[in-house]
Write a structure and sequence with these properties.
Length: 106
């Protein structure tokens, strides 16, 4: 299992054990992380699962693909470390990943 820490906008931490192959979004929903709405269910058709990847994890997580970049245009307060959590597959290399949830979703 891969450990992911979600930090809600109010600073509350949610420590989650995630199964490889699932997405960061799926694990946020399963564990009731506030602020991750995921209205499209993970189809990369909205920006309601927007998160900020902690800077140290950016090289491991990687860059968004073109479709995700287009959807990020609809997100609130996009930053260089913004990603859609539905597009990040959990894998062993992400053990210890820290993501922060924005104040609101787009």
């Amino acid at each position: 299992m891969t450990h992911i820490t979600y930090i809600a906008f109010d600073g509350t931490k949610f420590e989650v054990e995630a199964e490889s192959g699932s997405t960061v979004m799926e694990n946020a929903i399963r564990n009731a992380v506030p602020g991750v709405e995921a209205e499209c269910g993970g189809a990369c058709a909205c920006a309601t699962c927007h998160v900020y990847i902690d800077e140290e994890w950016m090289p491991v997580v990687g860059e968004p693909e073109a479709m995700e970049e287009d959807m990020l245009d609809f997100a609130f307060d996009v930053r260089p470390n913004s990603r859609l959590s539905c597009q990040i597959r959990v894998r062993d290399e992400l053990d210890g990943l820290v993501v922060r949830v924005p104040e609101r979703q787009g």
